[in-house]
Amino acid sequence: MKYYELNKNSPYYSYMQNTSVENSLTTEEKDYLYRTQLAGILFGMYEQCHYSEDEKNYAIYAILNKVDSETAFNNMQRADGLSEVDFVAVNNKQIAYHHLVKAGIL
């Protein structure tokens, strides 16, 4: 089964070259990961999120090749010409916020 299209004109093409993880998976593992990601895409579309075919293909590639979600997200940001997210900084702000809430300051 072919899980995604590799489009040389896609802004994600350069991120989709290493398939070593995908190649090491069994068909059952690939099917499970594909169905999981496809369900996420479909739920997003149900909630009025719009994905291009390239975005859908990259999302499926990313899960099959176990690209961590932060890297995949930032690859998508770069491909769309947007700024990357510093997830460490976001996490640190969240921790600081929870400390303030716990201390009764907020």
UniProtKB/TrEMBL annotation:
Superkingdom of origin: Bacteria
Protein name: Uncharacterized protein
Organism: Lonepinella koalarum
